Amino acid sequence: MRTKIIAHRGSKGTAPENTLESFRAALKSNCDGIELDVHLSQDLVPVVIHDETVNRTSNGEGYVYRKTYQELQQLDAGSWFNKRFTGARIPSLEEVLQLLKVSRFKGMLNIELKTDKIAYPLLEETVVDLVERYQPDYQVVYSSFNVQSLQKVIGLVPNAEIAILLKKRGAQKAFLPNGHPIQAWHGSHRLVNDMIKNNKRKIPIRLWTVNRLFDLGYCLNKNVDAIITDYPNRALRVRDRVQGE
């Protein structure tokens, strides 16, 4: 089995992260999956953005949860990256699901629930309800640094696929506090050997964020389940060289 290539926040290295433009670039690359991040707007719309504030990736300022969806839509989320992306917007999760539907996407969608800094009371319920309404015929993985979020997801959809995010050695968990098994580890690529060594249950290991040629080659030679990268086209080329076409 070849290592899957997952586009991190879309094709983050070549387009403004977590925008429809970035997701279209990822789809065009024919990568195996897409990763994105979800917060809640003030009016409880799941929106796709990485940070708790809009400051870094738009021309606005302030916390996401203090702005309505319409207010977020007024922001320019593209020109900070490159002027040719002027006018790109912060999309709702529903817009991304619509894009995947019309694109007949068949890969993996990794939805990171951004509750490690702000505990959104209704984020899990709102996101899971939206995804279930779309009845996707592709793989959906919910990931988070926050085990409470993962427990909420399982409480809502017992057969949902969940993954815990890891950035420290020795932090690997096999089970949630309620005893439900964690189905995958999504860890920093610097932890690859530590994760392989401690993976007694042989669950999928997916590594982030793997961009440099050396790191891509090293991780691909470890035959992990997936690599999450800002440069899906580059990663696909390296995979062909390392693991064959």
From TrEMBL:
It is an enzyme of class 3 (hydrolase). GO terms for biological process: lipid metabolic process. Residues 3-239 form the GP-PDE domain. InterPro entries: GP_PDE_dom, PLC-like_Pdiesterase_TIM-brl. Signal peptide: none annotated. It comes from Jeotgalibaca dankookensis. GO terms for molecular function: glycerophosphodiester phosphodiesterase activity. PROSITE patterns: GP_PDE, PIPLC_X_DOMAIN. The keyword Hydrolase applies. Its EC number is 3.1.4.46. Gene3D superfamilies: Phosphatidylinositol (PI) phosphodiesterase. It comes from the Bacteria. This is Glycerophosphoryl diester phosphodiesterase. Keywords: Hydrolase.
